[in-house]
Amino acid sequence: MSSSTINYVRGNCLQQTILHPRILIHSCNCNGSWGGGIAYQLAVKYPRAEKDYVELCNRFGNSLLGKFVLIPSYTDANLLIGCLFTASFGGPNQGSERILDFTGRALTDMKTKLTVEEIPDPSELDHFSSQYINAFKSHSRIPLQDYKLELPQINSGIFGVPWPETERLLKKQKSMSFTVYVLD
């Protein structure tokens, strides 16, 4: 199996001119706060998606660590929001190793959820979070596999993890292709 492909693009991952189907992946905390960085921008632009995220955090808390949840944006048919739960709370000083560990687990969970038709032995969290994506799938004419995986340089902002360390984890994701947005 081949390693992943990472393509870099200069620009804002939330720009209006992006029209292809995509999953915008971001790292987030488990305490229900999209209060900074790309998460804050998502909260402002997609408040219904933030409501779903807060509901997940209130119900599952730190059991979300190392998990991936896909949430519809609700206002853009070509955009799904992929949440990698990598930290207990927002902000730095949580330890790069800990955040990277949960990032690796969440990326593995993401690959499973995006490539397997049905998750074997799903957890309560899997059952609960599947309601969001199942509602989306019932209205979409685009198969989930046709969505491109796009992200900013996750973990390197508020969480303070050097980008090359997260990049190394992305490269380990076999046969996946990522587009990473770098701000000018």
**What does the oligomeric state look like here?**
single chain
Structural class: alpha/beta
The separation of the N and C termini measures 34 Å
Could you tell me the radius of gyration in angstroms? 15 Å
Order of helices and strands: EEHHEEHHEHE
Tell me, rounded to a whole number, the average pLDDT: 89
State the strand order across the main sheet.
Answer: 1-6-5-2-4-3
Largest sheet features: 6 strands, mixed
Shape: globular
Strand content: 15-25%
CATH 2nd-level architecture: 3-Layer(aba) Sandwich
The parts where pLDDT drops under 50 for at least 5 residues are none
The total of beta strands comes to 6
CATH superfamily: Leucine Aminopeptidase, subunit E, domain 1
Name of the CATH first level: Alpha Beta
CATH topology: Leucine Aminopeptidase, subunit E, domain 1
Could you say how many structural domains there are in total? 1
Family: Belongs to the POA1 family.
GO molecular function, one term: ADP-ribosyl-[dinitrogen reductase] hydrolase activity
GO biological process, one term: peptidyl-glutamate ADP-deribosylation
Catalytic activity: ADP-alpha-D-ribose 1''-phosphate + H2O = ADP-D-ribose + phosphate
